[in-house]
Amino acid sequence: MNTPQNSFQKLLQYPSAIAGLFVVFALVAVAVYTMITIPYSEAIRLWRGGEDVWYQNPRFAPPAWINYFSSKKYSESFAVSTSKGQIEKIVTPGNGGTSTIEMIYPFDFSYDEYPQEMLIYFASTFDEKQPFISIELSTPDDRTIRIANFAVGNEFTYRFSQDEKLLAKLRAEDVIPALFTLPDGNAPLKGTYQLHIIGTTFEPDSDINMEFVLHGQVFGLAGTDHARRDLTLPLLWGVPVALAFGLIASVGTSILTMIIAAIGAWYAGWVDELIQRITEINLVLPFLAILIMIGTFYSRSIWVILGATILLSIFTGAIKGYRAIFMQVKESMYIEAARAYGASSPRIIFLYLIPRMIPLLIPSLVQSIPAFVFLEASLAVIGLGDPVLPTWGKIIQDAQSNGALYKGYYYWVLEPAILLMITGLGFAVLGFALDRIFNPRLRDV
Amino acid sequence: MTTTSEKLLNIENLVLHFKTSTGSVQAVDGVDFELGTNRAVVILGESGCGKTSLSKALLRLLPRNVDKYSGKVILQGTDVMKLSDEEYRQNVRWVGISLVPQAAMNALNPVLKVGEQVAEPAMIHLGLSKTEAYGLVYKMFQHVGVPADFVSRYPFELSGGMRQRVALAMALVTSPNLIVLDEPTSALDLLTQANIMNVLKRIKHELGTSFILITHDIATSSELADEVAIMYAGQIVENGDAKDFFPAPLHPYSQMLMASVPRLRSDSDPMFITGQPPSLMNPPDGCRFAARCPFRFEKCSQEPPVFQKGNRKVKCWLYQ
């Protein structure tokens, strides 16, 4: 007899089960952590956000840790600002209400690849007269390149690569490589660069703040996509979405299938006939095609798709398998005894028939979770994912529609794919071990 | 609670036919008998004569292929055949009649603790709370001789005899007036059989319950029987007081059946009845035993009525 306690102990005898449990617990922990640290509304805001949210990130940047595995070092991204105190800011008052604001930011550049872009975001306060800015960059070989001089409004963005005057002055094809190379060299010059900005304000209360953003070639733990979005967000949020979809679909279909099979087997007659005929019709209906139709014509909300998935998965072959076992159990003496002492039909179904099936249900339930997780991802890949939610399938779809594999952005596809595989594997090995414990035919003698 | 003060159960012309692909099986075909309070009747007969079908007809535990189900079953003055299935379930099963099913050892739900199962009918039918029901369970376990701490055991942890007693306790828990025991001792060894019989006798004495004991074990059942009914091919051929029946059965079938029982202290070999019981699908006209009967004569080709012979009833032309 399997009590919950000794089932769990038996489970721990299988190394694969321990691995599976570890994966499942890790996923649950990540899901809980994600939902606490990045609440749903915040996740949606970030995921749906554009340049205003993600301006600090480069596009199409692989994760930063690829530098450990690559002989070429890719430049990492950073963003620093005066308001956060990361840039030194020296204010020197001058005559007649003017003042000089000097902002200096030295940074190490020791990479083999040029950054994608450099930007400076200025924000200034003034009444009438705009402050004036001049930008210089000192290179490790002690050259000082004058970048630009201009007056700034309340908000102003200076993009290095789009400055035509600078380009002309550097006499190069592109601004960024020219800034990071010796005049006659062809490789990036490594060393400490210094960004030097001198601002002049003409009013007593006038002030200038800036943020310096360098878009490198690599970014963060997971890289970024075409819209500069940090992929850790959808990768993390994909966990609770995948688990919720897989669990609800799997539990929903398994339990409903079992209950319906039990009802059919118990009442027999036309009830059973009806259930069997519905099952047979449903078996020949194209499952994916119906989901695609629902997604195309009705709604792509994950809850609608989940509901449709459950509905379409109830009347499947499993109902026939369960029914066959229920037919056998139904003829047991103890069922007749229960009838004889006046147990009602629902009581017999729920207290006598169904408990006999639970040992068979648990492994199949666990094993069917990855199938539903994959289904959700597949739907997202073919463009029927929830348009709002960040999910693993959505990442793959974005990657595919942006030609990730063609352009060599392998990280973009591999990260969600590996998470999907780990999830599937974790539940599968756990399910196999549960099957060996609960299914007497597979039990080790 | 002495003898036949009032009739507890009165069955008139009970019929249960099953539909099969090859025709109708007349498993119970016009059974009449009466049973008084605190009496035990033993229904004897060979395999396939309709004993179990009779118990199923009594409790309306019908399979799906019922062809004909009619007659009167008057339990304590009400004709329960007229009740709807739902009324029947609520008011008759386990309240009026309870059943210890055939192979009662397997009659327990393997996933429920036995205490829970015995308490269940009390909770369903008497509306007791769980604690009250368990109080009753302890009492019933005492009656049938099951240790009280067995309540929290699962059926597989019990021996066959213990399971039989638990099934009996389950039948008793709502204190019905009538318990139908379908082969209660068939899968048990002789000592346990004797034990169970003693338990039944004690219960009959202590609780005043009536029993319908369906068996083909003549020797064991004779201990408990107040009355005997002999069943043959779906009909009751002889019915009467056990004290009179056992020394001198009337119906030729009864006589031959009794003669087939091996005797411990006798040189005579057990007799056997030649031939096969008739097919219930297509029973012969007239007396159903005629083909195997050594006393048959012309009249046997007509259906015999029931003749009263002393305090016994017999369905045979010999007693006209």
Could you characterize what this model shows?
The complex is a heterodimer of chains A (445) and B (320). Chain A is of the alpha+beta class. Chain A folds into two domains: 4-46 and 230-442, MetI-like fold, CATH 1.10.3720; 64-215, Sandwich (Jelly Rolls), CATH 2.60.120. Helices cover 53% and strands 16% of the residues of chain A. Chain A is built from 16 helices and nine strands. In chain A, helix 7 (232-267) crosses helix 14 (392-401) and helix 11 runs antiparallel to helix 13. Chain B has 320 residues and is α/β, with parallel strands linked by helices. Chain B has a domain at 7-96 and 224-319: 3-Layer(aba) Sandwich (Rossmann fold), CATH 3.40.50.300. Chain B contains nine helices and twelve strands. Chain B has an eight-stranded mixed beta sheet with strand order 6-7-8-3-9-10-12-11, sandwiched between helices. Chain B is globular, with a radius of gyration of 20 Å. Chain A binds chain B through residues 1, 268-269, 332-334, 336-344, 347, 351-352, 355-356, and chain B through 59, 61, 64, 89-90, 92-95, 98-99, 101-104, 106-112, 120-121, 124-125, 154, 156, 167, 170-171, 174.
User: Which stretches of chain A are low in confidence, meaning pLDDT under 50 for 5 or more residues running?
Assistant: none
Q: What amount of the residues of chain B lies in strands?
A: 15-25%
Oligomer: heterodimer
Give the topology string of chain A: H per helix, E per strand: HHHHEEEEEEEHHEEHHHHHHHHHH
Mean pLDDT of chain B: 86
What's the overall geometry of chain B?
A: globular
Q: Examine the coordinates and then state which fold CATH places here, giving the name of the CATH topology of one domain in chain B.
A: Rossmann fold
The assigned CATH architecture of one domain in chain B is: 3-Layer(aba) Sandwich
CA distance, first residue to last residue of chain B: 35 Å
Give the structural class of chain A.
alpha+beta
Number of strands of chain B: 12
Largest interface: A-B, 20 and 32 residues
C-alpha Rg of chain A, in Å? Answer: 31 Å
